[in-house]
Design brief:
Length: 411
């Protein structure tokens, strides 16, 4: 077999492999070498099993599609639950699944197509063509910048790898680890003696899962699914008050050494959602429980100052600019069918790294979690992720309090 040089960078190769699992890619077809004719494509790609098509255009876009079903020129309409289109938007490949009730592609002697909608090497030319059908909900401007002229088109054979992947973050998915984490959290004592409990302030956009995070943590220690905080999906924030939620160790148990503080979601529209300028006032303890944050302003905040003791530590996890007086923890929803996939999920790893880079924080401060939302029973893997994130928050709180105590001693 002739030696072919791939145009796919190593970084993008890893990202695409992350979409497909622990796989290896072998280059079968390169249009600039073999030609853009359908016959050249089929000569090298038929009966090769699952394949990944990667196209490049003159505007620098990298996009394509994956099919798990052989090309055989059968003339049949193919159903393929694994098929998807992708496009690199920034550093992360964004996937588009086939719409329900639509065929994945037609297996004919023509050029490669996806859903009889997106054709590559159309008319045996270096062109991508969108027929306008509705098999995939795609935006051509986003996917390939409406630049239909291809500079290259490659097809890779996709095979399962025999090499064991090294996880990007080690997680022990055992009941023993869950019990250990619960014990560490129960017995946590803030390093600063004047602080009885760590207060964790949750900040993020509408629908980020702030209230659901409290419900999930509360569920673990209550031993059942709870929904004390209002949560769900809506165009505007379901949380309309600043709330402080202690968590008890079981129904009759003692309060645990932390308090989760919930806020209204951040919104882009002026006058809607939590005012980001007032976050520092919340951190300083000037806002009481059940305060209606939709009317939050500095004048009303300080009316309540006398109601608060100043021996509490506020800890924040959010997305945005750093504010003085608190350390910052970042977390993101891990939306996976199997939570245990996060260890080997290259795409999730890259997303965590991108969040770290954009916000200027260490990767160790970005923690994927899976909140309880539709489940009726607790699940071990969700518990481990949630408790790991909470334990890290308490660890970082200790680091902050240790630094604050040293500062007080020096001054």
């Amino acid at each position: 077999m002739e030696s072919l040089t791939s145009d796919l960078t190593e970084e993008k190769r890893k990202q695409l492999c992350g979409l497909l699992g622990n796989v290896e890619l072998t280059l079968l077809y390169k249009a600039s070498v073999h030609g853009y004719q359908a016959s050249a494509f089929h000569q090298r790609c038929d009966r090769q099993g699952p394949t990944l098509l990667v196209a490049y255009n003159r505007s620098g876009y990298v996009f394509g599609g994956y099919t798990s079903v052989d090309y055989t020129q059968s003339g049949q309409y193919i159903t393929d639950e694994g098929i998807f289109l992708f496009s690199f938007q920034g550093k992360i490949p964004v996937c588009i699944k086939v719409n329900s009730g639509c065929y994945a592609r037609v297996d004919d002697a023509g050029v490669p197509n996806f859903g009889q909608q997106l054709y590559f090497c159309y008319n045996n030319q270096p062109v991508v063509y969108n027929s306008g059908s509705n098999a995939f909900s795609l935006n051509t401007a986003t996917m390939y910048g409406n630049d239909t002229q291809l500079s290259e088109c490659e097809v890779y054979k996709v095979e399962q790898s025999n090499t064991e992947e090294k996880p990007w973050r080690n997680v022990l998915w055992t009941a023993e680890r869950r019990d250990e984490l619960m014990g560490l959290i129960r017995n946590h004592k803030p390093l600063m003696t004047s602080v009885s409990r760590v207060r964790i302030l949750m900040i993020g956009p509408v629908g980020a899962g702030k209230s659901s995070f409290f419900n999930s943590i509360n569920s673990i220690f209550m031993g059942r699914i709870t929904s004390k905080a209002m949560s769900g999906s809506a165009g505007t924030s379901l949380t309309t008050q600043f709330r402080t939620y202690p968590v008890k160790d079981g129904r009759e148990g003692k309060p645990l050494p932390f308090v989760l503080c919930d806020t209204m979601g951040l919104e882009e529209q002026t006058g809607a959602g939590l005012d980001i300028e007032d976050i520092s006032s919340i951190l300083q303890g000037h806002v009481p429980d059940r305060y209606k944050v939709m009317f939050l302003n500095l004048c009303s905040i300080y009316l309540h100052k006398a109601q608060f003791s100043q021996d509490k530590s506020c800890v924040t996890m959010k997305e945005g600019q750093n504010k003085p007086g608190a350390f910052h923890q970042y977390w993101a929803q891990a939306r996976h069918q199997k939570v245990t996939q996060i260890e080997g999920d290259v795409v999730l790893c890259l997303q965590v790294q991108e969040v770290s880079s954009r916000l200027g924080v260490p990767v160790s401060c970005v923690l994927p979690v899976k909140n309880y939302s539709q489940e009726l029973e607790l699940e071990l893997n969700c518990d481990v992720l949630l408790l790991t994130a909470l334990q890290q928050m308490l660890n970082f709180a200790d680091d902050y309090l240790d630094d604050a105590e040293r500062y007080e001693l020096l001054n």
